[in-house]
Amino acid sequence: METPVKTTAKTQNKKERLIVTPSRAPLRPGQKEIEKSSIIRSKAPLRLGLAGGGTDVSPFSDIHGGSVLNATIDMHAYCTIEVSDNNKVVFYAADRDEYEEHEATEQIALGDGLLLHRAVYNRIIRQFNGGRPLSFRMTTYSDAVAGSGLGSSSTIVVAMIKAFVEWLNLPLGEYDIAQLAYQIERKDAGLSGGKQDQYAATFGGFNFIEFLADDRVIVNPLRIKQWVINELENSFVLFYTGSSRESANIINEQIKNTTEKNKRSIDAMLELKADSIVMKESILKGDFLTFSRYLAKSWEAKKKMATSISNPTIDAIYDMALEAGAYGGKVSGAGGGGFMMLMVDPTRRVQLINELNKQDGRVMNFHFTKYGTQAWKL
Questions:
Q1: What pLDDT score does 361 carry?
Q2: CA proximity to 268, closest of 239, 307, 229
Q3: Do residues 248 and 191 lie in contact, with contact meaning Cβ atoms separated by under 8 Å?
Q4: Which terminal residue of the chain has fewer beta carbons within 10 Å of its beta carbon, N or C?
Q5: How confident is the model at residue 148 (pLDDT cuts 50, 70, 90)?
Q6: Which residues contact 249 (CB under 8 A, 6 or more apart)?
Q7: How many CB atoms lie within 10 A of CB 252?
């Protein structure tokens, strides 16, 4: 693995604005060169899947319709683009210490390595830059590791797209960015998964999201009262189990169960969908008793969707949390590891945290956020 190129003080202090010119293809008729800032940054928030997770995955959402309740938190994925004129494209995933350097061509071959970075570049060049290559260095990182259950991979994609939107002045709204992120990750890169993460990261805040046939999505932003948000933050404990997991294996099993009309799995997903509606109503009303009851109920249903959603380690932590006073909880995301969120009376929160600290893993402090992906130029 090559060592990432260090940015020199001279480069850091460089203030002039650069004009990026095409390496090969000429401008299309009427197309003008756009003056571009030398540094563009973006970020997108990670999310907690509160209810309905899994019903956003095709083919279930195409056949039965899905619905998910989620909320973004103050953990983010980040992207920085530093414009260059050396006809190189450099990708550096700082949190994974993975570095790639490519010639600035119309398309970069997909394969092993930073697949999502390449797929985003290819789509942007093909769909929004007339096939003309761009030259830059891109650095990304996330506050959560891949496989954490907080939607980190999809959120990185949203952050990368948002940086290009800011850089190239692309006329893309929130739905456009989220749908593009979904297409790049699921179709261009061929990675298994659902649709909720891209929309949560783009829109931000508390959302009730409906998933319909033909990749149609409706985002319903929820106006949650501040006292309700305060109570939720005091009642939730977010615990990282210490292990990430490959969500694709779980999701592929879920897809297989739907395709083969596995009644147990489909009934569980229908139950999750119905529960998400009840939990949306209860959170809007500040009915925490109902919300906590259905949080526990939905976790039992979710475990029926695929065999690897839970395991003995997760079950043991969950049982210990209940003994320590938790009302209920669930694993965020596809399951199998990553983050668990547990709901407890705030007066017993410290007791629960002390018990969790005896386990492998760690408790993470967090707050809910109201904003989706953002970008700015330097």
A1: 87
A2: 307
A3: yes
A4: N
A5: confident
A6: 308, 336
A7: 15
Cis bond before residue 59 (omega within 30° of 0): yes
Q: Where are the beta strands (DSSP E) in the chain?
A: 18-19, 35-36, 39-51, 66-83, 88-93, 98-103, 136-142, 206-211, 217-221, 236-240, 326-331, 339-344, 362-364, 374-377
Q: Is 319 a catalytic residue?
A: no
d(CA 84, CA 100): 15
- Bridge partner list, 73: 368
Q: Check whether 112 has a pLDDT greater than 80.
A: yes
185 DSSP assignment: I
Residues in the chain: 378
Which residue has tokens 């999310």? 47
Q: Pull the structure tokens for residue 94.
A: 């700082």
CA distance 271 to 192: 23
- Mean confidence (pLDDT) of the chain: 89
Distances (CA, A) of 43 to 160, 258, 292: 8, 35, 31
Identify the active-site residue in 97, 197, 275, 315: 197
Q: Among 121-135, 147-161, 252-266, 333-347, which is the least confidently predicted range?
A: 333-347
pLDDT, one tens digit per residue, over 76-109 is: 999 999 999 999 999 999 999 999 999 999 999 9
DSSP-derived secondary structure for 338-357: SEEEEEE-GGGHHHHHHHHT
Give the per-residue pLDDT at 334: 63
